[in-house]
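F.,

This is the one I mentioned.
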């Protein structure tokens, strides 16, 4: 999945129906590609290019992880802060 993929415009969090941020795979710490909802602090994995957007697929992230993910999303090209 790419940051300019038109699919990202229509994907929404299954819990609050708000927009998600794409987190590209990060080779440095082993994180895979994911979609992130900063409002609820939930991360949804992208497996083989397919977003896993069931509520049970998302994971709650702690405050420290939330800050790291926001920084990671801000570094992505074409991503609004």
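My design for it:
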């Amino acid at each position: 999945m790419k940051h300019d993929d038109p699919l990202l415009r229509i994907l929404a969090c299954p819990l609050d129906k708000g927009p998600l941020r794409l987190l590209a795979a990060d080779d440095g710490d082993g994180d895979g590609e994911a979609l992130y909802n900063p409002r609820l602090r939930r991360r949804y994995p992208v497996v083989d290019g397919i977003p896993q957007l069931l509520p049970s697929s998302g994971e709650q992230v702690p405050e420290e992880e939330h800050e790291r993910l926001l920084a990671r999303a801000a570094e992505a090209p074409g991503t609004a802060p």
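The first strand starts at residue 21 and ends at 23.

Talk soon.
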